[in-house]
């Protein structure tokens, strides 16, 4: 089964600027590294945020014979929403997101889905099985994932890793980058052990999924 989150197998045509779409694609890849044992990450290309052309992004596969369960849907939803969260960080800056995150979801303006409505609908569909399993309001599960994605990118050094991947996409000779080659290059960097520790800490803070964990931050929406 091929899973192409906010993407298609045909790479986006882009002008090699280190632009918003490049960071959005990089964020998908960095988030997906949290679940590298679950998915085979194949390729990455800058996302075309203009509606006139096909989108790029992360392409990966998972064994379709394996049973889907709530945590897998959560993994997919986090990869999905990571590009929109990255767009918000790109536009507003990490400092503003760090300051304003305590006001979400009650503060408008930080999460801009304009031009990414289809992507956001895909994210909401991925959240639906989690809602049914835990008998939770959809917005509770959706905002739990959104806040988790923002907090991941706010972890020490993680956004810098997104920037490293974005620069690698920008400098690549081809429009489509190999995820295996990207990861190999990342593992050569001095900061990689700290990043790997962040992946482990994020995973431990999020899982196993529980109704209590999903409702902790937005109790009035439960």
Features:
222 residues; four-stranded antiparallel beta sheet; 9 helices
Short structural description:
This protein has 222 residues and is of the alpha+beta class. The protein is 54% helix and 8% strand. It has one domain.
Number of helices: 9
Number of strands: 4
Number of domains: 1
Largest sheet data: 4 strands, antiparallel
> Percent of residues in helical segments?
40-55%
Describe this structure as you would to a colleague.
The chain is of the alpha+beta class and 222 residues long. The chain has one domain (2-207). 54% of the residues lie in helices and 8% in strands. The chain has 9 helices and 4 strands. The chain has helices at 20-32, 70-92, 94-100, 117-134, 138-154, 158-171, 179-186, 192-206, 211-215, and strands at residues 2-5, 40-45, 57-61, 177-178. It is globular, with a radius of gyration of 16 Å. The protein starts with a strand and ends in a 7-residue tail after the last helix. The model is unreliable at 4-17 (pLDDT under 50).
What's the SSE blueprint?
Layout lengths: L1 E4 L14 H13 L7 E6 L11 E5 L8 H23 L1 H7 L16 H18 L3 H17 L3 H14 L5 E2 H8 L5 H15 L4 H5 L7
Antiparallel strand pairs: 1-3, 2-3, 2-4
Helix pairs in contact: 1-2, 1-6, 2-3, 2-4, 2-5, 4-5
